[in-house]
């Protein structure tokens, strides 16, 4: 298993270099709880709007073009996240605040995203909806980049599968919470946005009070130049092939996942003819969420114990692809229920173990935030790619059967390419 270490100058005391040292001490349950709660809040802020509120708002603005409006809003927001995540990750790497490198970005990002969610609640035009959703993505990705980098900062390698599983649990609980908000507000998306904003702000407080976020000494921060800063976002596949293959497989599996869920509420409305699509989304999300949480907390520690990651990632990627095939060939409510269950089993194991794998192929400790941000692009870019592909599949190339079959093929490619990673078993 690969580990990165950044040399510390001999004249710098060991305690002041903790921000860059390879972690060896196991993190506490209290710290992990704070980490999990941040993930809950961020994902509620993301997926309440993505799964329910933006679609409802788009329908209210122009029902005849609701798919196009939703795709535009989600695509623009995802495009912002492509830049925001690695950018704020890199900025947090260089932060010398007395509160640590990551914590200031968790707090400021949450405040910005919450304010933008409140603004979205009153948006009555497509342009405003796009603008405010982009600001939500900007703030939430600042917080997400920072909290993601905190894991390789503070968690030793042999604990990362378990912590990754709990982080996945938090992400899934946030998705479920967003779906709960969608169901309980009964179409009143304005209240839904306020609930998402409140959940986000409250979720970051436990982590900030017990952050375990060492400060970066000014003498260890490299001199800044725009050329080096911008060049740092390119991680050469030739020099770091395992990082490149890990990025590609994460991208493909997330495209598969996004294609499966992006039009879920429209699928329930127009194909299955569900009498209450928002409640249907909650039901499917609940099944998915429970199974994600179960498999994430099982698969992550299991991979820690056996010291292997790739077999878990390959098997879980194949299951995610199977969920797409189930939705394609059984476009009825029962098929949707089975597909949600398979997707939950596969994605839970995938999130936990793939995250641990990714932390083991990072090029160097000093750039953990930036490099994890680049990795997170592999989860954000599919939102841009998948929304356009989903729109074409549904409106031009055969409908939802084509959409879900395409998702399955892409997911299987992600499973195949995992074998290319050499430095992690």
From TrEMBL:
Q: SUPFAM superfamilies this protein is in? A: MFS general substrate transporter (SSF103473)
Q: Which domain of life is it from?
A: Bacteria
The alphabetical list of record keywords is: Membrane, Transmembrane, Transmembrane helix
**What does the record give under GO molecular function?**
transmembrane transporter activity
Q: Which InterPro entries match?
A: MFS (IPR011701), MFS_dom (IPR020846), MFS_trans_sf (IPR036259)
Keyword Transmembrane helix found: yes
Q: Where is the Major facilitator superfamily (MFS) profile domain?
A: 246-425
Give the transmembrane ranges: 35-56, 68-91, 103-120, 126-151, 163-185, 191-209, 243-266, 278-300, 312-330, 336-362, 374-394, 400-419
Membrane topology per record? Multi-pass membrane protein
GO CC terms, sorted: plasma membrane
Q: What Pfam families has UniProt attached to this entry? A: MFS_1 (PF07690)
The listed locations are: Cell membrane
- Please tell me whether the keyword Transmembrane is annotated for this protein: yes
Q: What is this protein called?
A: MFS family permease
Name its species. Answer: Pseudarthrobacter oxydans
